[in-house]
Amino acid sequence: MNYLLDLQSFLPGIIVAVAGLAAIMLEAFKKSANTSFSVTIGGIAVALLFAIQSLYGEAGTAFSGMIVYGGVGAFGSVVVLLGALFCVTISREYLRDLDLHNGEVYGMILFSTTGMLGLAVSNDLITLFISLETMSICLYVLAGLMKNEKIGAESALKYFLLGAFSTGFLLYGIALIYGATAATNLTEIAAAAQPTFLFLCGTGLLFVGLFFKVAAVPFHMWTPDVYQGTPTTITAFMATAAKSATFVAFVLVLTRMLPSSEIGDWQSVLQVVAILTMIVGNLIALAQDNVKRMLAYSSIAHAGYLMVGLAAGNEAGYAGVLYYLFAYTIMNAGAFGVIAYYERNHGLDFTEIDSYAGLGFKVPVMGVMLSVFLFSLAGIPPMVGFIGKYYVFAAAVQAGLIPLAIIGVLASAASVYYYLRVMVYLYFKEAHKEYSLKTPGFLFKWTLILLAVLTVYYGVEPVLPTSSLMELISSYYTV
Amino acid sequence: MFEQYLPIFVLLGVAFVLALAFMALSRFLGPYRPNTVKLKPYESGMDPVGQAKDRYSIAFYLVAMEFIVFDLEVVFLYPWAVRFLDMGTGTFVAMTVFIVILFIGLIYTLKKGTLDWDMKNFKYEALKK
């Protein structure tokens, strides 16, 4: 039966959604957040297995062309589920310390993940819109988790208002595109598109909506406040999984809806946004004294690097973006995880960089891991972050965008300053007063160690994933 | 493509001119004897007491929210109920899944006590902390 095949092609999303329902029902009836936690871990793990399996299966479209399966969509699903899994495993201890540990948090994370999975496989603007909203509405709630803190309320309200505003742009863009082409399916739009005024306006508005969600520069103002006011492990979830899902949707829109440059010169738009995002993100990050805000601006800068890959607009560029998303998910989840570890000992004020003085020697394994993740984010060679940046910039050079690649490399060199600054505080400053740090729990510690190992492993052994990635991309073009 | 909208623009123009014309006519031909009651903005019912920004019990919002959810369910259910014999089992399964999810949501809210209006049963867990 065709219907069942359709459902099977979106199996990871269905599993995650059912796990989400189970998580909130368990909370309501058993009042045990730990049970919800186990269900969440189990649901995401099973969904991850199915997503990995579909990575090696054939690619195609399902639900009358509303979604794609296999290929890029499957890779995006894997990255999203990895991000969700790591953030959930480090969340339990952290949220317990903040007194925020309840089953609804996991329910929200899972519903949001469902939206992200839909976003990563959307082949239709309606699917894209619905998934984006499912993801965002849950994220607005998660952003306001610290509801007794002013900073948490600010974060949620700011995210909600600006997010709703940007959704308006996105929806209006979809409406105009429908007006110009009488289609919402990405491939049908590509077939019917003419570079008319209406179509260009619509696509521009669609891009504005997506730029907002990935925090590209003229639309980035919400990022630092939201990231700062959200519980740190949830911030990791927003910065990795949500960003990855939106970028995969962006890749789908660019490759399927705008395959030729005859319907608008969107690569130049992306180039300008990429340059702005890299420069502004990195420059403002230099001046940050709060580690969470610094990582927020660094995530803006990373959106800029990813945009370089999109601007290149060739297979190498898209493959580079996908690999970068994987790398970024691993290293950023790790960096936020260590910050969450330091923070949960002494509360929110503990994210100021002054309080990091001399911390590196306290719990050596945590200090070393934070250094590994920050080196990787800075793009220092034996880590995965370097490989990701290399692919993206190499693709830009291949596409003849040498000035763009040069600006990217320079911006990335400037970023080393603020990443190393944290390490200077960790290892070369005297502590102001004596802190005692709790020992990290088993799951928390080993998740972070696994992330650090992956960061180094994929930095040393980068060839394998790329070649299979290339295969993925080309298999996807033949769909 | 804008030519096809021309009649609408003509209609708008005629309506605008006509409205202005009637207002001008009544101004010039009709008597004008104002007093305080006549110049007040029209409002039916009682005089307004206080502002709209007063604090309400949170229970009102929860009931309003659930009303919207099940109101929208009806919006989907009616067209489906009219056509579902022609649409086959696929839509039946889809609608069942939709209703089951909403039903789970209802059970969740009931269990959490959101429809519990008896103040004695409220758990002030958040305040105790």
UniProtKB/TrEMBL annotation, chain A:
It is a multi-pass membrane protein. It is an enzyme of class 7 (translocase). InterPro entries: NADH-Q_OxRdtase_suN/2, ND/Mrp_TM. Keywords: Cell membrane, Membrane, NAD, Quinone, Translocase, Transmembrane, Transmembrane helix, Transport, Ubiquinone. The keyword NAD applies. The keyword NAD applies. NDH-1 is composed of 14 different subunits. Subunits NuoA, H, J, K, L, M, N constitute the membrane sector of the complex. This is NADH-quinone oxidoreductase subunit N. The gene is nuoN.
Automatic annotation (TrEMBL), chain B:
Its EC number is 7.1.1.-. It comes from the Bacteria. Pfam families: Oxidored_q4 (PF00507). The keyword Transferase does not apply. One of its GO terms (molecular function) is oxidoreductase activity. It is found in: Cell membrane; Membrane. The keyword Magnesium does not apply. The chain crosses the membrane at residues 6-30, 58-80, 92-110. It is an enzyme of class 7 (translocase). Belongs to the complex I subunit 3 family. NDH-1 is composed of 14 different subunits. Subunits NuoA, H, J, K, L, M, N constitute the membrane sector of the complex. This is NADH-quinone oxidoreductase subunit A.
